[in-house]
Specification:
It is rod-shaped, with a radius of gyration of 26 Å. It is built from 5 helices and 8 strands, in the order ααββββββααββα. The protein has 152 residues and is α+β, with helices and mostly antiparallel strands. A hairpin with a 6-residue loop joins β5 and β6. The protein has a 5-stranded antiparallel sheet. It has a domain at 30-128: Immunoglobulin-like, CATH 2.60.40.
Length: 152
């Protein structure tokens, strides 16, 4: 009798873990950043960076974050990346509920395994800096101290 109870418990545990999104999907995902024009430097608020787009990061599914792209001659551009429950993540959670995996439900909810990052891929469009601003800054740096405003 004890053997059959142990077997039933082990089988139930096996089914609940098999449906667990943490096991079937993992807690990280590939996140792609592209830009127009390409070659922008990218930094995320979660500490990831790459020297030039396009970039692919291995990002945690759990937390939202901000992405900032920069390139010489262009204005910096930022975008917010959110998390949302994915179809496959919801199915893993449903599997936990159906097979009684309370532990699996808790793990999936706290690990972010049932989430996807959105948007993914992220496409950032950089705007050119105003030509007047670039010329003004160049002119200010080129004039020698004390000669500003003197004409010959």
């Amino acid at each position: 009798m004890k053997l059959s109870i142990r077997f039933a418990a082990a089988t139930a545990l096996g089914f609940s873990l098999g449906a667990c999104a943490t096991i079937t999907r993992g807690t990280t995902t590939s996140f792609v950043v592209e830009s127009t024009p390409p070659g922008a430097t990218v930094r995320t608020s979660s500490g990831f960076s790459c020297p030039a787009t396009p970039c692919v990061f291995k990002m945690p599914r759990k937390d939202p974050f901000e992405v900032t792209a920069s390139k010489a001659g262009y204005k910096n551009a930022s975008s917010y990346v959110r998390t949302q429950i994915a179809g496959a993540g919801g199915a893993g959670m449903a599997g936990n509920i159906i097979f009684g995996g309370i532990i699996g439900v808790g793990v999936d909810a706290t690990s972010g395994a049932m989430n996807d990052l959105s948007p993914n891929p992220l496409h950032i469009v950089l705007e050119k800096k105003d030509a007047e601003t670039i010329v003004d800054k160049a002119a200010a740096g080129a004039s020698a101290p004390g000669t500003q405003g003197i004409t010959q």
